[in-house]
Amino acid sequence: MDMQLSQRFAIIMGGSAGLGAGIARSLAAEGVHVCLIARREQPLRNMVDIIKNDGGKASWISADLAALEGVQNAITHIQQHYPKAPDIIIGNGGGPPPGPASALDAQLWQHYADAMLMPTMAMTDAFLPSMRQQGFGRIIMVSSTSIKEPIQGLVLSNALRSALASWGKTLAREVGPDGITVNTLMPGRFDTDRVAKLNASRAEQQHISVEELKRRKEQEIPVGRYGEPDEFGAMATFLASPRASYITGACIPVDGGLLRSW
Question: Which residues contact 127 (CB under 8 A, 6 or more apart)?
Answer without folding.
Answer: 78, 85, 86, 89, 137
